[in-house]
From TrEMBL:
Dynamin-type G domain mapped to chain residues: 76-322
Keywords attached to this entry: Coiled coil, GTP-binding, Hydrolase, Membrane, Mitochondrion, Mitochondrion outer membrane, Nucleotide-binding, Transmembrane, Transmembrane helix
Source organism, top-level taxon: Eukaryota
Keyword Coiled coil tagged: yes
Cellular localisation: Mitochondrion outer membrane
Name of the molecule in the record: Transmembrane GTPase Marf isoform X2
Gene encoding the protein: LOC108566432
Membrane-related topology note: Multi-pass membrane protein
Chief subcellular location: mitochondrion
Keyword hit for Cytoplasm: no
Length: 416
């Protein structure tokens, strides 16, 4: 495969950071669940025969079972989310298709994407879509039928259609990356609604800019709004349509430098989301159209296209973007999603330990009490014995005295 890392080497993918962390944390929660269930069973058992357990501790431990179960549910649904924004026709849908290695999303000239589209791995390996507010599966066989299905519906631009696509057709989907495609930021007055509805849980944002022009105010405004609601969002800037530069090679370096400087300034000085060094790892000059064509050709799905001058370096840069993107999204998702889970897991484990510690202490007190009771009894017996001894001793002496007294009197009486 000429596509660098092909479908054959998933272990090298930086996405594995997330995949492995997810598996590990899930295993830990399986253990915590066992541990909590064991503790609850144990408590139920001693609850029957002893009086040491207070109702509250038992209920508390039972709640932990529910909580752990809830976390495991959320964990199973955790994914890495990337959202694409930019002006109409800059190539947002094309970039996603190139990353998915297939024409999945409708793309074309004019205003094409007219609502939010979320692409994620299908649980059943069948392709289907689900409209917002519905749970009906509409099956889709191809882009044509997807586009048709989307046109049929009167959709509001901020509405979300979920596209479920077979996981085995794309590593990114298999490894739990979810893509969000959006209409052009220039076609909506409702940027705030977009952000609140679709952006707050995104791990990475990709601004798809048009290298033939420059960053637009509407695009910048959108990201200014995003960064007021999220602290330091991860933003990549793709200068797409860079193949157009092939026709003006004499200005290529100059134009690239200009775009680069403006994009770095935007990320570093305006949004203040990263350092200049970091920004340089976030800005790429690519051609989504070429990358998709090359991939379709690799897979034998289209004849090898005649590509413009400089294709190889643009394609290389596209792959470089994918790698940096994968690294960024998996690290960010592990941190934001799993950090919370592991903190809650630790909290539950320590709370449960406190409950068990209390239980142990209570049991110990009970034992000590019983021992003490026994000891008191023992002491009582001792006391009685002692008393008895003292009494008998006294009696003996009294008798002795008495006897002596009698003897004396008798001998005295005899001598008289
Ligand atoms: P909307 O959904 O309408 O907001 O547009 P979009 O940003 O999703 O753009 P889309 O992917 O639909 O692409 C618009 C047109 O630009 C399509 O005809 C693409 O084939 C073309 N296109 C996309 N990327 C490139 C590129 O890198 N180079 C060239 N030359 N054309 C491109
Ligand atoms: Mg589109």
């Amino acid at each position: 495969q000429m596509g660098g890392r092909g479908a054959g080497a998933p272990e090298n993918s930086p996405l594995q950071i997330f995949v492995k962390a997810k598996k590990k944390i899930n295993d830990i929660f399986v253990e915590i669940e066992d541990y909590v269930k064991d503790a609850v069973n144990y408590m139920h058992e001693i609850e029957k025969e002893q009086q040491i357990l207070d109702e509250k501790s038992v209920r508390q431990a039972e709640e932990f079972v529910q909580k752990v179960h809830g976390i495991k549910d959320v964990l199973a649904r955790d994914h890495m989310k990337v959202a694409f924004f930019g002006r109409t026709s800059n190539g947002k849908s094309s970039v996603i298709n190139a990353m998915l290695r297939d024409k999945i999303l409708p793309s074309g000239i004019g205003h094409t994407t007219n609502c939010f589209l979320q692409v994620e791995g299908s649980p059943s390996d069948e392709a289907y879509l689900v409209l917002e507010g519905s749970d009906q599966h509409c099956s889709v066989e191809s882009v044509a039928s997807l586009a048709h299905a989307l046109c049929k519906e009167k959709l509001k631009e901020s509405e979300m259609v979920r596209v479920y696509w077979p996981r085995n057709r794309c590593l990114l989907l298999r490894d739990d990356v979810v893509f969000v495609d959006s209409p052009g930021v220039d076609v909506t007055p409702n940027l705030d609604e977009w952000i609140d509805k679709h952006c707050l849980d995104a791990d990475v944002f990709v601004l798809v800019a048009n290298a033939e022009s420059t960053l637009m105010v509407t695009e910048k405004n959108f990201f200014h709004k995003v960064s007021t609601k999220l602290s330091k969002p991860n933003i990549f800037i793709l200068n797409n349509r860079w193949d157009a530069s092939a026709s003006e090679p004499e200005f290529l370096d100059q134009v690239r430098k200009q775009h680069q400087e403006r994009a770095v300034d935007f990320l570093v000085k305006e949004l203040k989301v990263c350092t200049p060094d970091e920004a340089r790892e976030r800005i790429f000059f690519i051609s989504a159209k070429e990358a998709l064509l090359a991939r379709l050709a690799e897979q034998g799905q289209s004849p090898t296209a005649t590509l413009a001058e400089g294709f190889q370096s643009r394609y290389f840069e596209f792959q470089d973007f994918e790698r940096k993107f994968e690294e960024c999204i998996s690290k960010s998702a592990v941190k934001t999603k799993f950090e919370q889970h592991s903190q809650r897991g630790k909290y539950i484990a320590s709370e449960l330990r406190d409950v068990l510690d209390r239980l142990y202490l209570d049991a110990q007190h009970l034992r000590d009490d019983k021992l003490l009771q026994r000891k008191e009894l023992h002491d009582k017996v001792n006391y009685t014995e002692q008393q008895l001894m003292v009494i008998t001793q006294e009696m003996k002496q009294k008798i002795h005295h008495m006897v002596e007294d009698v003897e004396q009197r008798v001998s005295k009486a005899l001598s008289e």
